[in-house]
């Protein structure tokens, strides 16, 4: 049995893990590596990519900056989260705001320091990324649509830096990026519907707060329909191997998503829609392996 002090330490660890959403960071890091191996640099041997110290540092620094971003976002949204996510908020509050801010500054300092090993351009990129996340959390997230757009842009930035590192500018990569960006943007708008109670209480000027849920649903529907374009292009115009099964599944889920969207009215229903989009994005990460099954088997064996 753990002592009371040790139990408190364990709870605080899980609290900090909850604040930085460690599970999301692990998925993003995995996605960066899979994208590097199977999309951005498929011509390179697996060992070369996996043991690339510069790529490792880029992924590590991305993780630190994202973690610090979740911390500062949690700091600014602490009152709103008490309304929208009461259970998670109680767990998050086991770690003091002072500790969170200290961790925030330490992570950002370490991120910039580590980025200097890669290049000065990496330092500039991640410094800008840190500033962008702070400015979004401090001001931009309260501006309707712009806040959603910036949030989606910041979410896709870790993939952009790997893309630039490998200098692979093939059209298929841009189409993949558009598909991912549109889904993330739709998810951000769903979160506004899900969190409308807290947004109203804290005077967050989101689209559903200012213009109503109907207009918000129209915007989300248009985004989902637009996401079908890159999906169909990737199925019929580009060689994505067996990943075409993923995009076909995604299309079916997105059609069902739109149907459910217009029937949804409660926070629980919007949360289900949010999880559908999250599921499509996460499955997409692992589906990268389907691009070249032979390549996967050869690299495993």
Structure summarized in a few sentences:
By secondary structure, the chain is mainly alpha-helical.
- The CATH first-level class of the largest domain comes to Mainly Alpha
What characterizes the major β-sheet? none
What's the architecture of the largest domain, going by CATH?
A: Orthogonal Bundle
Low-confidence stretches: none
Number of helices: 16
What integer value in Å does the Rg equal?
20 Å
Category by helix and strand content: mainly alpha
Question: What would you note in describing this structure?
Answer:
- With 301 residues, the protein is mainly alpha-helical.
- The protein folds into 2 domains: 13-168, Tetracycline Repressor, domain 2 (Orthogonal Bundle), CATH 1.10.357; 170-301, Four Helix Bundle (Hemerythrin (Met), subunit A), CATH 1.20.120.
- The protein has 16 helices and no strands.
- The chain has helices at 4-19, 22-40, 46-50, 53-76, 78-84, 86-92, 97-118, 120-138, 146-166, 171-194, 196-201, 207-211, 213-236, 244-261, 267-287, 293-300.
- The mean pLDDT is 87.
Topology, please?
Blueprint: H1 4-19, H2 22-40, H3 46-50, H4 53-76, H5 78-84, H6 86-92, H7 97-118, H8 120-138, H9 146-166, H10 171-194, H11 196-201, H12 207-211, H13 213-236, H14 244-261, H15 267-287, H16 293-300
Helix pairs in contact: 2-4, 2-9, 4-7, 4-8, 4-9, 5-6, 7-8, 8-9, 9-10, 10-13, 10-15, 13-14, 14-15
């Amino acid at each position: 049995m753990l002592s009371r002090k040790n139990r408190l330490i364990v709870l605080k660890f899980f609290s900090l893990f909850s604040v930085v959403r460690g599970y999301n960071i692990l998925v993003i890091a995995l996605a960066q590596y899979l994208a590097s191996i199977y999309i951005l640099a498929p011509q390179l041997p697996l060992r070369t990519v996996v043991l690339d110290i510069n790529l490792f540092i880029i992924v590590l620094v991305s993780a630190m900056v994202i973690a610090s971003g979740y911390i500062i976002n949690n700091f600014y949204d602490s009152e709103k989260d008490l309304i929208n996510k009461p259970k998670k908020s109680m767990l998050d509050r086991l770690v003091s705001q002072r500790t969170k801010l200290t961790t925030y500054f330490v992570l950002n300092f370490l991120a910039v320091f580590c980025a200097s090993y890669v290049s000065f351009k990496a330092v500039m990129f991640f410094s800008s990324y840190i500033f962008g996340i702070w400015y979004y959390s401090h001001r931009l997230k309260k501006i309707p649509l712009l806040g959603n757009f910036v949030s989606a842009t910041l979410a896709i930035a870790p993939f952009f830096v790997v893309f630039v590192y490998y200098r692979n500018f093939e059209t298929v990569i841009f189409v993949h990026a558009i598909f991912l960006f549109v889904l993330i943007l739709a998810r951000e708008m769903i979160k506004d519907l899900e969190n409308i109670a807290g947004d109203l209480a804290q005077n967050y000027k989101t689209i559903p707060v200012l213009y109503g849920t109907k207009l918000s649903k129209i915007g989300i529907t248009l985004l989902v329909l637009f996401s079908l374009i890159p999906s169909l292009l990737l199925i019929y115009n580009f060689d994505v191997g067996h990943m075409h099964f993923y995009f076909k599944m995604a299309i079916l889920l997105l059609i069902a998503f739109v149907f459910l969207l217009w029937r949804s009215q409660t926070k629980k229903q919007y949360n289900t829609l949010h999880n559908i989009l999250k599921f499509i994005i996460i499955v997409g990460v692992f589906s990268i392996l389907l691009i070249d099954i032979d390549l996967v088997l050869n690299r495993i064996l």
